[in-house]
Structure formats: C-alpha cells, structure tokens
Amino acid sequence: IYTLTGSCENECADIQVSPYNCNGTGFTSTISNNNSDVNVGPGQTVRISAGSFTRNLNITGGTLVICGSAVPQNINMNTNGNPFTLVINGSVVLNNLNLTSTATIENYGSLTFNNSVGFSGTIKNYGTMSCQADFNVNSGGKFYNYATASLLNHNNNNISENLSLIHISQGIVR
User: Fold this and answer.
1) DSSP letters of the chain?
2) What's this model's pTM, rounded to 2 decimal places?
C-alpha cells in the first residue's frame, strides 16, 4: 500500500465548501424523486435532492448539483464542446464514466467509482473519493486531491496534484 501525503511545506489545502447551497435558490430545476431521467443542458443548473436517484443522466452541458444520493444507471454525455460541471454535495456512486475534456467533477461529499475510470477532464476532490479499479488520468486530464482519496491503481498521463492524503493499494504508473 502506498500512502502519499502532501509535504505541506508551504501550506496544506484549506477545507473547501461547495459554492452551491443545497437549500438555496438559483437552480433551473430541482429533481426530488426518482421518477424519470434527468437532462442537463448549457446554461442550466439542475439540483438532484432525491434521497436515492438511480435513473439516467443526459448531459449536453451546464451544471448538475447532487444534494442527495445518486447511483445513475447511465451517464450519457454529449456536450459537443460545451462545459459541464458535476458538483457533489451528497453522495454519488458511478459504475461508468466518460469525462470529456470540457467536463469537471467537484466532489465536496462522497464519490465512489466502482469500475475503472479514465478521463480527459478535471476531477477536484474536496471530500472523500474512492476508485475500486484503475484510476486513469488521460492526456489532458487533471486530478486535484484536497482531501482523502483511496485508489486501487493510479495511472497518471498528465496532471495529478495532491495537497492532502491519497491511499494507493496496488501501484502508481507515471
């Protein structure tokens, strides 16, 4: 087991708070049940407050804020270059992910990847994150850890920055 900690020579990461208040206003729409798929498009800020969301996410851009618990069946991401941000204030479990170069995940809660993940976008972890298989930072991808991340394998082909604690169970490939 590898445990990497930031040296904190200058300063370790400060605790970050999500810019989205789950009880606040300013959301384009709020999904409070598990009745249908969720569509998020450019210019939209959609909040999922359902206690257990398991439907599909159809993404063409915008911002999706998870305030409850989500285990999406599928994430259909077709942004055509539009920026997309997934903000996790609650908990999310992902079984698949194809994160494009214009997409960002900001985790302030709990994020779990059940399978291997490869991404060319950006993942910022301010909460608790785990990956049960290969965690691949592809060319163009960026991973910033400001809290706690537990990874099975970490394959880094671009930028990985740790300002807190990363546990790596099997190995690091650079």
Assistant:
1) -EEEE---SS-PPPPP--SS-TTSS--SEEE-SSSS-EEE-TT-EEEE--SSB-S-EEESSEEEEE-SEE--S-EEE--TT--EEEEESSEEEES--EE-TTEEEEESSEEEESS-EEESSEEEESSEEEEEEEEEE-TT-EEEESSEEEEEEEEESSEEEESSEEEEEEEEE-
2) 0.90
Residues 90-140: tens digit of each pLDDT: 999 999 887 899 999 999 999 999 999 999 999 999 999 999 999 999 999
At 155, phi and psi to the nearest 5?
-105, 110
How does strand 45-48 pair with strand 29-31? parallel
Q: Could you please report the per-residue DSSP string of 122-137?
A: EEEESSEEEEEEEEEE
